[in-house]
């Protein structure tokens, strides 16, 4: 449910979720929804897992983390995530190449809703999530949130990085 920004060493920055819009499951995530879960992870000394496709791939390797999230916090836009792919593994190198090429662009959250509001039947949303227990943030081929897009990243090919950055700036303008 968010976007990816990646450096050549496999460092990723992006949004696992964006606030205030309706996703493909007709959920709206409200600001503050992650507050309790992130606080619990801090108390426990843990972080949600960095997975690929929410562990739903065809290989048993898909059940393993693809890297490590180092920080997560809410800002006015959504759930900001920073981490690093385990580029020493062949799966993470493949994912890195897919992100670099633009083929893999999205982040998505795996969670358990803990608090929500059911809007009137006339609403396009089925629920407004105000509390979420965050289990993992996955790199996915297609995120649930329509705002899930790569913002920018740096790769070993600097000319490619500059062209992608110029394209991203033009799209935002």
What does this structure look like?
There is one protein chain. This protein has 173 residues and is an alpha/beta fold. The protein has a single domain (2-172), classed as Serine Protease, Human Cytomegalovirus Protease, Chain A (Alpha-Beta Barrel). Helices cover 21% and strands 37% of the residues. The chain has three helices and nine strands, in the order E-E-E-H-E-E-E-H-E-E-E-H. Strands 1, 2, 3, 4, 5, 6, 7, 8 and 9 form a nine-stranded mixed sheet that branches. Strand 1 and strand 2 form a beta hairpin. The longest helix is centred in the C-terminal third of the chain and has 15 residues, at 158-172. Residues 154-165 have low confidence and may be disordered.
How many runs of DSSP E, i.e. beta strands? 9
The CATH architecture classification is Alpha-Beta Barrel
The figure for the number of domains is 1
Tell me the Rg in angstroms: 16 Å
Strand content: 35-45%
Strand count, sense and barrel status of the largest sheet are: 9 strands, mixed
Summarize the structure.
By secondary structure, the protein is of the alpha/beta class. It has 3 helices and 9 strands, in the order βββαβββαβββα.
Annotate the secondary structure layout:
Blueprint: E1 2-6, E2 11-18, E3 27-29, H1 35-44, E4 49-52, E5 67-74, E6 78-85, H2 90-101, E7 106-117, E8 127-140, E9 152-153, H3 158-172
Parallel strand pairs: 1-9, 3-8, 4-8
Antiparallel strand pairs: 1-2, 1-7, 2-6, 5-6, 7-8
